[in-house]
Every structure is written in structure tokens, then in C-alpha cells.
Amino acid sequence: MKRRSIVAGFAAAGLLALGAWGGIHADDLWSKAQAATPAAQPAAHAAPTAALALPNFTSIVDANRGAVVNITVTENEKTSEQSPVPDFGNDPFSQFFRHFQIPMPQQAPTHGLGSGFIVRSDGIVLTNAHVVDGASDVVVKLSDQREFKAKVLGVDKPTDIAVLKIDAKNLPTVKLGDSNSVRVGQWIVAIGSPYGFENTVTAGIVSATSRALPDGTYVPFIQTDAAVNPGNSGGPLFNMNGEVIGINSQIYSQTGGFQGLSFAIPIDVASQVEQQLIAHGKVERGRIGVAIQQVTQGLAQSFGLDKPRGALVASVEKNGPAAKAGLKSGDVILAVNGQLVDTSNQLPPMVANIKPGSKATFQIWRDGGKKDFEVVVGELKGDQIASASGGSQNGRLGLAVRPLTKDEREQAQIDGGLLVENASGPAAQAGIEQGDVILSVNGTPVKSVAQLRALIAKSGKHVALLVQRQDAKIFVPVELG
Hints:
By secondary structure, the chain is of the alpha+beta class. It is about 15% helix and about 35% strand. The strands form six sheets. Strands 7-6-2-4-5-9-8 form a seven-stranded antiparallel beta sheet. Strands 18, 19, 20, 21, 22, 23 and 25 form a seven-stranded mixed beta sheet that branches. The radius of gyration is 27 Å and the shape is elongated.
């Protein structure tokens, strides 16, 4: 089976040389097909068919192409040569999205290409952070061929947004739309400079919204099938009203080129980042200090939820905002300030958008009921507010366990728990391994083998085990049958 690599970001680290190449014109194919195919005879009583009304994108392109720019970056240092598509191996967890760059051999300077668009007539340009990352010089080229050296006002890598400023006035601008109103199936238009072909227009539909990507913790991406390739990064995504609803940022590809899966940063996210970068030079994000995981069907049944929803708290940072408010491992976060959390990937951007120091109400599912907790949101200093942990599922218990010794508890920095000496059957199928520590069953801490047996006996068909492996904690659903 062909290995898959996932490609993100489209600024080429080297300008591609376009050699002589040939192509087959669509007119030629049509003429040959017509010559080889006998003329179809119309049916004697065929009912007339209504012509399908296809969208016309010309007015959108005419109104906005002047505000879409080409970005060329120069890097003075390049220390190594890398393979453009690294071998990720067979491990699916390592096949994560990465920023796409076409590396060049050791030389200086090197150049890269990207796209952007003007949001203010006095020269404010939005693009992707990875387009200008590490650049010593950034040049913005307008559609009228004028070129300006740009100043990078700010870069926010977590959302992949960068704000540039060029010294120009009375520039054409795009109109910003509402990315919250984007619907799956609606037509969209992308404009950019794939492989350096300036003002290239492609179109498609919205394939999905609020798509979570492994390296996009704070971004609920808009997925489309519009053709996007290296060089399109930072270019605008328009709706049929000619409004920008997103910034093209990443693709999924086995080859490094377009394969029908493109991802755009919602313009609402980009606008918030732009405002903070211009005002403060950085982006402030809220944090509550929890590690979360998705609520699966098995976990939902174990915790008594009517369906899989919310974000399951796998662990709580000691003395963090969530811990001080009373949240604990095993809680399921259902809503934040009245906004429902349907899936765990929705929680990080929700919390990140809360102003540090302000209070937020978290609706929690605990012990079969809903409870509200008021959390004073902290400020994010690192790269994450909530790490989404993966988990295994399905099975029926088959564990050999023993209580931890005092030294083992001190080393693991836990008060109780049972050490797994052997895992087989359902527990092994669910992913539990020798050396894991069982901390709780359905949210109830366990300190003895007898207590574990009693909890399992009354757990019904499903049980959720909180397991610690090294420094990580995760809930593992096990089907008892």
C-alpha cells in the first residue's frame, strides 16, 4: 500500500524553474472525441431538460483580484538539504500535518513564494506565518506589478497568521465575511499564486467546517475541494458574495500537490489575531490547565451520557485554573459560557479566545449530572491549552494488578493506583499494557485490588479506566460484554 504523507503550507523554499513542457488542449480532446463518436440521434419524444445553472465567478474575481498579492521571501541562511517528502514510516500517528517547504541545497540566499491579501487601504496585508517564517526580506507584489518591501508587524505560529505592512496608500481591499455562517456544500473561490502563477483562480465547495488538524489546536479549519497548491498559502478564500471567509493554509497530499483536500483558516480567527498583533505585537490566549480527550461511545456509556459529546478531562494541572475551580479528572466539559462543546477539538479555541484573568462558566458532567463551575482563566505561556490525547477502545477486563509500593507512588507522584503486571483479553485489546497504573474506574479512585473488583462488578457493560503511563494520563474505555 502506498504510504501517505500529509503536506501543509504552500510557500516554496526555492523558486521552481519552469522548463519546457507540453500539454493537451481541451479543444483537441473534444474534437477527437466528436470525430470518433457517431452523432447521437435525438429521441423522438424526449422531454426537454432544464439547463443547470452553474455559478459564475467572474464578478468575484474582477472585484477582488487587485487586492490579492504575491509574496516573495528571502532567507540568508540555509544550513542543510532535506528530502521534500520525508519518509514517515508506517506509524499513523507520525503522519501528521507539516508545513510544506521545498528545501534547497546548501546555498544563500534562498527564496520562497506565497500569497496574501490587502485588508486595509493603508497597506495592511494578511498571509500565513509559515510564508514569512525565517525571512530576512519580504517583498509584496501587487496585481499592477508594483513591488513593496514589507515589514512584518507580527507572526502567530499557533494559528499560522502573519500581518505585514507596506508603504502604500489607497490600495484596493477585500471585504471580510463571517466564517461562522459558512455551510457545507456552498461554492467557494480561491485566488493565489500556486508555483508562482500569479492571480490564479480555482473554485470548489466547502467540504467540512470546524475540522481539527493535529498541528492546528486553535484553528477550526474550513475544508474545501478547491485546487490549492504550493504558493497558494496565505491567499484568500471567497464566498459567492465576494467576501473573504478564510485563508488558504494547508493541504492533505500523498504527492506534495493538490489531491482534493484543502484547509483554510476561518477569517474570524485571522481577524482576531490581526487585531492583537497590531495592537500588542503578540496574541494573548486563555488557558485552564487540563489535558482532554475525545468522548467515544464506550466512554459516553461508562459515564452515563446520552451520546458521545463534550471533552473528557484526562488530567488537571496541579494548582492550575481548572484545579482551583474544582474540576477534576473524569469530568466531561459540556459547555463554556453557554456555548456547547460537541467534540473535544472545539474546546481549545473556545478557551484560547477567553481573555486571561476573566471568569468563565464551565458546565460539567459529573456523577451522572450537570454542574456549573466558575473558572478564572489563566494566560497561555506555552504552545497548548489542552492536549488532546488519543485512546484505545473495546474489550473485556483481564488484568493482573497490585498496589504500588510507597517508593513507586512517590516516584510516580500519585497517592494510589494499581500497577498492571499483566494485561490480556479485553484490557489488552483496549490498549492497556504491563507497567500502566490504573488510577480510577468510572471516575472513582482505586487503591486496592478488592475495590477494583467491586467497581468492575457493578459497572455494567462498559467501564472507563483512568490509566497513567509514564507522565501521561488517559481514559481508556473497555467493553465488558
